[in-house]
Amino acid sequence: MKGFFKYVMAGMLGTIIALIVVLLLSVITIIGVASSSSEDIETEENSVLLLNFNETVADRTSSKPDFFDLKIKKQLGLRDLTININKAAKDDNIKGIYLELSGIEGGIATIEEVRNALLKFKESKKFIVAHADYYTHKSYYLASVADNIYLTPEGEIQFMGLSASITMYKSLLEKLGVEPEIIRHGKFKSAIEPFILDEISEANREQTQKFMGSIWNTIVKGVSTQRNISVEKLNEYADSLYLRSAKTALEYKFVDGLLYKDQVYDEIRTLLSIEDKGKISFIKISKYSNATNKPKIDELVSTSRNKIAVIYAIGEIGMGEGDDESIGSKNISEAIRKARKDSSIKAIVLRVNSPGGSALASEIIWREAVLAQKEKPFIVSMGNVAASGGYYIACAADTILAQPNTITGSIGVFGVLFNAKELMAKVGVNVSTVNTNAYSDLGMPSRKMTAFERGVIQQGVEDVYTTFITHVAQGRGMTVEEIDNIGQGRVWSGIDALEIGLVDVMGGLGDAIVIAAEKAGVEKYRIKTYPEKDKYQKMVEKLFADAKVSFLEEELGSSYKYLERIKILSKQQGIQARIPYFIDIN
User: Fold this and answer.
1) Are both 133 and 82 inside the same structural domain?
2) Number of structural domains, the chain?
């Protein structure tokens, strides 16, 4: 009896604690929403717009609980970020922009789009000042648009060219007694190489060299134009490691001065004609988005009945619902369908930032894209990565836009199973199987596939690949043979994809929206974003999920992304259409 009461009391206590946690999180949310809704401000005269990139620039603006500061944190999405830079150019109260670049998060194509917005801002003749303690390739590429670039006196600039490191697991798996069983189509479909080779294949080395070189060339040309240093000289500096210190960075004209932050502030005071030690009115870009007295963007009319749908397809592609960081076959196909059936939606822009994933899920989304394209303009804007399954869902578009350093292509498919029978035997595990039919245990890690089973799966991979390249050929107005020649799983940069016909235009999300409006024949419109978000639906579940992520991010810091990648790999099922890599360019 005592044991019974002990368990009952323990259960009641657990329930009470859970209710308290939910109540606390709800209060945090209510307080946060209330505070965020009252953040409207007015920009002061003689202000400077402050941009730093300590957090990843997401494709879509979002709000999530900050469980450490007990408030709702607004994360400004790429489109809102660039719109506000455009507004600042027309705002008489904003005299310039200060780029604080000691830390920068975001993909290289995202940085390209922000950089383009800053180049446009410069047409206003307002100043841009950049400062960092340490510049990476990515942060310096962004900083290169500035009128004045400053570096901390003992700081450094990373400028030695890009490098790709691919970790190979073949020998490790052999020692463990795990045999990978690979089925693929495409000589460049190298997602499986780490499991079967000790060194990357020549085909993989060739494609990696090609797209990495293309991205590097984009960076070098951009720096060359803005800093008036020849491409040849920049490559010479990289090859010889000339930028060994802050002093050499100044000597070779990569920076305009070696200053501490307080000294940079003095320079900004001079630009603003503020007296010595006078207060500088900095306004963060996230705050500026709530400014009530900033200029309006003419084409965005909140009262217009005409709408352009922007559908965000972000993350790995899988079956089911999906969320803010993954593409679900259900939610994205439903979003496209809703936009197609809504008569007030005059055109659709699909923003794709995905390495791919499930081939079946990609097919389901592709079908909705085809139906939508038949009824209204359907434009695709590619982000940092729109490859394999990410290209699959894009290929039906009227027009495809990418940045020069977008990673795309990877038109190929693969399947991978693991035979862990030897490993199980080593650790004393034996599996007894009871089947109702001959191949009921197909894919079980406790045994090796038979030749017949491998043939069946290989045929499935071949069928999916044929379907994939047929869809692309139809969407791009090319032959299946032409697509097969540039397919085979090969990865391309955006600029190279333009040359071979996989992409139509170089540009970002804003450009895609302009093209969509032009094709729809509308001048005044407003943006409708999908998937639609219900403010209260699944609120408690999301709060718990965000709490877990917040704590993990706090503890793991920049290493959190590796945990995310392990989770992604563990969820892969069925035939995959995904890029071979997780790509981080510094």
Assistant:
1) yes
2) 2
